[in-house]
Hints:
The complex is a heterodimer of chains A (493) and B (313).
Chain A lengths: L3 H11 L12 E6 L14 H7 L8 E3 L5 E3 L2 E6 L5 E6 L13 H12 L14 E8 L2 E6 L6 H5 L25 E7 L3 E6 L12 E6 L3 H9 L5 E2 L8 H6 L3 E16 L9 H10 L2 H8 L5 E2 L22 H10 L7 E6 L3 H16 L3 E6 L2 H10 L5 E6 L20 H12 L3 H18 L3 E13 L2 E2 L16 E2 L2
Parallel strand pairs in A: 1-10, 14-15, 14-16
Antiparallel strand pairs in A: 2-3, 4-5, 5-7, 6-7, 8-9, 9-10, 11-17, 12-16, 12-17, 13-17, 18-19
Helix pairs in contact in A: 1-5, 7-9, 12-13
Chain B lengths: L1 H14 L4 H6 L5 H11 L5 H13 L13 H36 L4 H15 L2 H15 L15 H35 L2 H8 L4 H30 L2 H7 L4 H10 L3 H29 L8 H11 L1
Helix pairs in contact in B: 1-13, 5-6, 5-8, 5-10, 6-8, 7-8, 7-11, 8-10, 9-10, 10-13, 10-14, 11-12, 12-13
Amino acid sequence: xxxxxxxxxxxxxxxxxxxxxxxxxxxxxxxxxxxxxxxxxxxxxxxxxxxxxxxxxxxxxxxxxxxxxxxxxxxxxxxxxxxxxxxxxxxxxxxxxxxxxxxxxxxxxxxxxxxxxxxxxxxxxxxxxxxxxxxxxxxxxxxxxxxxxxxxxxxxxxxxxxxxxxxxxxxxxxxxxxxxxxxxxxxxxxxxxxxxxxxxxxxxxxxxxxxxxxxxxxxxxxxxxxxxxxxxxxxxxxxxxxxxxxxxxxxxxxxxxxxxxxxxxxxxxxxxxxxxxxxxxxxxxxxxxxxxxxxxxxxxxxxxxxxxxxxxxxxxxxxxxxxxxxxxxxxxxxxxxxxxxxxxxxxxxxxxxxxxxxxxxxxxxxxxxxxxxxxxxxxxxxxxxxxxxxxxxxxxxxxxxxxxxxxxxxxxxxxxxxxxxxxxxxxxxxxxxxxxxxxxxxxxxxxxxxxxxxxxxxxxxxxxxxxxxxxxxxxxxxxxxxxxxxxxxxxxx
Amino acid sequence: xxxxxxxxxxxxxxxxxxxxxxxxxxxxxxxxxxxxxxxxxxxxxxxxxxxxxxxxxxxxxxxxxxxxxxxxxxxxxxxxxxxxxxxxxxxxxxxxxxxxxxxxxxxxxxxxxxxxxxxxxxxxxxxxxxxxxxxxxxxxxxxxxxxxxxxxxxxxxxxxxxxxxxxxxxxxxxxxxxxxxxxxxxxxxxxxxxxxxxxxxxxxxxxxxxxxxxxxxxxxxxxxxxxxxxxxxxxxxxxxxxxxxxxxxxxxxxxxxxxxxxxxxxxxxxxxxxxxxxxxxxxxxxxxxxxxxxxxxxxxxxxxxxxxxxxxx
Lengths: 493, 313
């Protein structure tokens, strides 16, 4: 059946002549693959929650601009003490939540204390653990003190999990979100769509779009048909790259290829032999032809990477050539490591195509250098409990989509079991650096250290394939975090 | 029966690998947040206590709160039934409206070209997967002609017409393969009944061939047909996930599928118990229909009906 659906999508597209749009031009519908289970990004890790709510319904103290820079949001400016441990946030004035509650320093204190407290279920709680305390000298100033200088702190505050919530309404945000953003929840028909409407309490200029409907279309063929039939105006993360030639043929549609923060890697469990041996890991890296993987599995869309960062990130260093495809070198390294005849390993494959389809290809490439790979398909639920929580795995193909998540390599509890004192020291130096130039230099050093150690096999950056109506403006090419900022969108004319 | 089903589904869902709390927190989960969320969800309680809490809630009509959606399961299911029930009814009506006339007509032309042609078409209809049919319909009526929406369901609050328009293509793609099966069953049951003495008697007393079939053979052939319809209706209540995916309909099938993938244990348990209940109700209705069709069968005469199904095939 999997093979038939894309084949049919091509058939569907071959005939594709879209009917004219008959839509009022102050609204739009946006297609998404997954539905957010709830609408509170502080209580669930699903990226779809941020995609619908972030900067539409909810705002944070800082935000990430289209180019990846951290820029002001609810904090209009800030100053950082010389020791990098005290942040003075100057808050926007006259801001209120959509239920009328005012936004001030008490809100900041409530939101941050809630996220770092003992009962916190924040999916990104690690962002808030550096905080020692939040003080409110006056309503428009929030003073956040840190336990130690943390270079990544301002970026972390721009994550969807760090949004500001209203103390009175926060408990019900899951189904009735109350935020400070330009939009609020209009209608949520579960399983089909969420509609956002203008928030009359919004303090800024009213946005161009009066409403936006997010429609959830999981099937790639259905997504293609909906786009061609004009049922949706934009699909910022379009799921059917095989249909792009037909989409491009439709002059009413625009295609934009950018990058996400998704890093496709082969996670290796370093607590298990032979992956504890750097020669084996490097041999695996030499055995893999990243370009061939991208061509076959990602339909040619995607960028080869050589470390745990993506081209769209400000401090990205291109290390993709560290271990060029070289099976002879791979065999030599395996022999040096004591595996002249290779070895047998098990690889877990979660559901997405980059893993299931990619796994077949990776197994064939590793087979060429004598590594026999047993592929095991797992559901997400099983992947999370077996590989991630119990660390009961040898290798797995996975895309890590959190932006700038190099800190996980310094996290001793993380499922990779990568324990490297030199990396930990380097990461501590990065966090302690207060000068932006020094931070950038150290960020590059971290990537180089990982490329050198190759704790995981870095393969490719997941592309952001955006498809939208050619008359629609304000869409993002790249997305370090998964967002659709409706207030920036507008129709031509 | 329902108690047994509830115990079985509870055990199966808890034996499956996977932790609902971990699915909520993802790859940023820490031991502290995991423990806090498991406590909030009540997953840190002993299993027997979890079962008793859930089952005692069911008894008083409290379906519990979904782990994934964090809202009452009763509301989730009710919303999905608003799609699934009309879709199932529309499909079964379409299926019967096509299958009975075709089956009877083919039976009266047994062995001739019309019969062979119709049965070949039915064979094709059985073989064609319904999602493929759905994609073809989208291609023609949504992408090419633009008459109907390609995907999605606007809900009943925006009027009945847009909702029915959204359900039309899915209903057709579900109904045609089912109609094909039903037509074949109808044909063979009618042919069998047509060979009985009472039909010959009817013909002997001067009734036209067609009239004899419609008035005497068909009513006696209905038992296997109604049995198959019962199965098909039960299937339509939860087995339509593939077609729901093609048309992006928020029906029960997708809710169940997503709940299993997301280890939304409470929702899965509720739906399975509800479906068990609905199968019992449908089977009872089928039994009542048997009695109406053939007064010799007392309500509950399942064994006679099953024998009839065997003969019908």
